[in-house]
Amino acid sequence: MNLLKTIDFAQLGDERGSLISLEANKQIPFDIKRVYYIYGTEKEVARGFHAHKQLQQVAVCVAGKCRMILDDGKKREEMWLDSPAKGLLIEDMVWREMHDFSEGCVLLVLASEHYDEADYVRDYQQFLKIQRGE
Ligand code: T46
């Protein structure tokens, strides 16, 4: 199974510039309950380092870029999120890390659930145990 499930968003551009529209259950394959964005992260700072038990998210760099690593406990794949027209679908129980934020990067995330700290698995060994069914 490919961990890097990308979604190409239609760009509604004209001579004035570009516009991208994201709607629940259309471009975004779930009901959107929460939106957050990450900005002002320095290049040498890495974020994430957790998985979610039950959460669907789509991440998109609406400005700048960052390197996204996804890991299901068996394999690790990475890609650059470097376009406002490219989303990355991150499903349940996928370990994620974000690295190499460019200056001015704004990472927008659309989430299927409200914030719940109890949904986070922040310990990698614990994540591996869950993935092995232990
Ligand atoms: C994810 C990646 C891509 C809230 O209070 N509400 C929220 O909706 C979120 C997302 C975070 N927070 C609090 C929890 C922490 O005290 O904001 C603080 C920073 O969150 P965290 O350290 O989890 O941030 P990242 O960048 O490591 O991870 C975030 C999301 O938490 C996570 O779900 O998938 O971005």
N-to-C CA distance: 22 Å
Mean pLDDT: 97
Oligomeric nature of the chains: single chain
Provide the number of structural domains.
1
**Rg, Cα atoms, Å:** 15 Å
The CATH topology, please? Jelly Rolls
Ligand inventory: dTDP-4-keto-6-deoxyglucose
What proportion strand?
35-45%
Q: What is the overall number of helices?
A: 1
Task: Kindly name the structural category.
Answer: mainly beta
CATH architecture: Sandwich
Q: Which descriptors apply to this entry?
A:
10 strands, binds dTDP-4-keto-6-deoxyglucose, mainly beta, Jelly Rolls, globular, five-stranded antiparallel beta sheet, 134 residues, single chain
Protein architecture, described:
The chain has a single domain (5-9, 26-132), classed as Jelly Rolls, CATH 2.60.120.10. It is built from one helix and ten strands. With 134 residues, it is mostly beta strands. The strands form two sheets. A five-stranded antiparallel beta sheet has the order 1-7-4-9-2, with no helix packed on it. A five-stranded antiparallel beta sheet has the order 6-5-8-3-10. The protein is 6% helix and 40% strand. The chain has one helix at residues 124-131, and strands at 5-8, 34-39, 47-52, 57-63, 66-71, 76-81, 86-90, 95-99, 106-111, 120-121. Bound molecules: dTDP-4-keto-6-deoxyglucose. Residues 34, 36, 38, 47-48, 57, 59, 96, 109, 115 line the site of dTDP-4-keto-6-deoxyglucose.
In short:
With 134 residues, this protein is mostly beta strands.
Write the layout of secondary structure elements.
Blueprint: E1 5-8, E2 34-39, E3 47-52, E4 57-63, E5 66-71, E6 76-81, E7 86-90, E8 95-99, E9 106-111, E10 120-121, H1 124-131
Antiparallel strand pairs: 1-7, 2-9, 3-8, 3-10, 4-7, 4-9, 5-6, 5-8
The site of dTDP-4-keto-6-deoxyglucose has 10 residues, from strand 2, strand 3 and strand 4.
